[in-house]
Design a protein that fits this description.
2 domains, alpha+beta, five-stranded mixed β-sheet
């Protein structure tokens, strides 16, 4: 009988021990599968964005390139004088200067040639002197780069389908910047070079996104804001590509899109040599080939597009943004007038890159890299742009100039400029 009781007791203890070793965990396999599916969808979408849209842009494949009328630099200068001596409050820069384009934009008439005012200056004189480029032996080539229409259409459809928020600002009939209406204009306030402040759901103040964030927390944010500047339709559209930042960082290959400044080189105002490039060549260079009547190449210039720009003087009161190589060339934005500064044109802001339709208009890379890229519409990660216009000044010699029968411009691999051009380090 004792043995039976003992056996029963042992069996009960074993049952209790076995019971105490049991554990429970609630699971929802369908929820896990849903998260995996969402993550995989993001991977596919980011890959499509980078491979089908960003890559063709940085290789120049999605661009149409147009070459305007080529002139000798002295002829261009004589045809485009800058007259100074107008009342300051009747000029865009309040500097008393107009050229024909800015005069027409201000007065809406074409009496510029009849105006007899004070000092007359000529475009690019100061920059030509700075970089020791002889205007007599130089030509100027107007260049226009436009997104191909079907590519642009596909890009905008993709961004609109991907965005978690969208803000649009028109700058048609833009008021003069320093007038009362200009100080209240949404586009000017959002896109200006300094102390800009946007409005709308993606803005820092008054929007739907977090307004304060520490630099260390940026990479964990869901929001990743970029914009598309349509200079033909005169509007800028901001898109919030939710969670793109984390996926771009994870892939590593396209990490640079979260902060373009780190791949754009070191160009400081203290260096005459602004023609430097980091070790990793991402953006394709621009090759300009001059040929004679037989189609033979007689001169070649390769322009490094991967590097921050500097401010280049047009005259003592106006300037553009661009790059230059001493004794070789000047490559600069054409803002539509030689009498204004880029920040006063419809471009606004600071064009930190040149030669591609990917740009950063919020940061001056030559002053160092920032932190808040893509957090709000006030500081988008980067801009995609419909079109840009440039002026390329190339120093040749009289013999070569007389032989030129054609000019060809195309994009070439990004390390070509380091191999082909003579660069003073």
């Amino acid at each position: 009988m004792k043995q039976i009781i003992l056996l029963v007791t042992i069996a009960l203890l074993q049952a209790q021990l076995l019971s105490s070793q049991e554990a429970q965990k609630s699971i929802n396999l369908s929820s896990q599968e849903g998260q995996k599916s969402s993550d995989q969808t993001l991977v596919v979408e980011v890959n499509k964005f980078t491979e089908e849209f960003i890559q063709p842009m940085i290789r120049g494949e999605s661009y149409n390139i147009t070459i305007g009328d080529i002139q000798l630099v002295p002829d261009y200068q004589k045809s485009n004088p800058i007259k100074c001596g107008f009342p300051d409050d009747s000029t865009f820069e309040r500097n008393g200067c107009h050229d024909r384009a800015s005069y027409f934009a201000w007065h809406d008439n074409d009496y510029f040639d009849q105006e007899s005012v004070g000092k007359v200056t000529y475009p690019f004189t100061s920059t030509l002197n700075k970089y020791q480029i002889n205007p007599v032996n130089s030509i100027i080539i107007p260049i226009s780069i436009n997104l191909k229409s079907e590519f642009k259409k596909a890009l905008l459809l993709f961004l609109k389908a991907q965005t978690d928020g969208i803000n649009e600002i028109s700058y048609a009939n833009l008021p003069k910047k320093k007038w009362g209406a200009g100080r209240k204009n949404k586009y000017i306030n959002c896109m200006r070079e300094f102390t800009n402040e946007c409005s709308g759901s993606l803005s820092r103040y008054g929007g739907e996104l977090i307004s304060h964030v520490s630099p260390g927390d940026i990479n964990s944010l869901e929001n990743f804001v970029i914009n598309f500047i349509d200079r033909k339709q005169k509007k800028v559209t901001f898109f919030n590509l939710k969670n793109y930042r984390q996926e771009l960082l994870r892939t590593r290959e396209y990490r640079y899109l979260t902060n373009l400044c780190y791949v754009m080189g070191d160009r400081t105002s203290s260096r005459l040599d602004t023609y430097t490039k980091p070790h990793l060549a991402i953006f394709d260079d621009i090759e300009v080939t001059f040929s004679d009547k037989n189609g033979d190449s007689i001169h070649r210039v390769v322009i490094n597009t991967q590097g921050s720009v500097e401010r280049l003087g047009i005259n003592y009161e106006s300037s553009t943004n661009g790059i230059a190589l001493e004794n070789h060339f000047i490559f600069a934005y054409d803002y539509g007038s030689n009498a204004i500064k880029g920040r006063t044109s419809d471009h606004m802001g600071w064009s930190s890159m040149i030669g591609h339709l990917i740009n950063d208009t919020r940061h001056n890379f030559s002053r160092g890299c920032g932190s808040f890229y893509g957090v709000w519409s006030d500081t988008p990660a980067f801009s995609l742009v419909s079109n840009y216009e440039y002026n390329l000044i190339v120093q040749l010699n009289k013999s070569l100039i007389q032989q030129i029968a054609s000019v060809d411009i195309k994009y070439v691999p990004g390390d070509t400029s380091l191999e082909e051009m003579v660069i003073i380090r």
